[in-house]
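Morning. Coffee machine broken again, so started the prediction first thing and wrote up yesterday's gels while waiting. Chain of 189 residues, entered below exactly as on the submission form.
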Amino acid sequence: MIYGVYKNARNAAWQCLIDYNVTELPVKPSRIARVAGIKVIKNSDVHELEPHESGSSTLEGNQWYIVYDDENTKQRCRFTIAHELGHIFLGHELKKGYHTRKFDITKPAVEQAADIFASRLLAPACVLWTLDVHTAAEIAALCDISNSAAQIRAERMIELYSRNRFLTSPLEKAVYKNFEGYIQKKKAE
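Came back before lunch.
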């Protein structure tokens, strides 16, 4: 992935955490959507998703909707909602009025960017770093994400730990500041 696309998705996730005053883990993507005026709907209520789709985001008039497959695990649903928020907050161009999240190994760049947004939203690196979290199991438990999403995040954290360049961005510093109380509480446990 092109670094500029990655950086934009990461920064958008940080900005979202700041703008919606997220202060603890696990991050609640449905709460962010609600505060942003985005309606989140279970697929079992509307039956709009195709069998291979995990979620979709749709703009009807001035109203955004996210539909997610509520037959998936809670962790997968949370990631799907965060992914769809990524499409919306990153301003991805709609095709036929909606985005869909399909389970597909070969993802287009906008899907990769939405995944980056979701993983950085649900598992912010500066919080994981400060709490000295390293393993996929620790990340999954702390962030309430799936083992596969946690494994991908853990692999990225290995790279970030090796660079030891945390809190270099004003945005990341603001995210850290939001989480300070939570971090102190977790360290005291």
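The mean pLDDT is 92. Going to sketch it on the whiteboard this afternoon.
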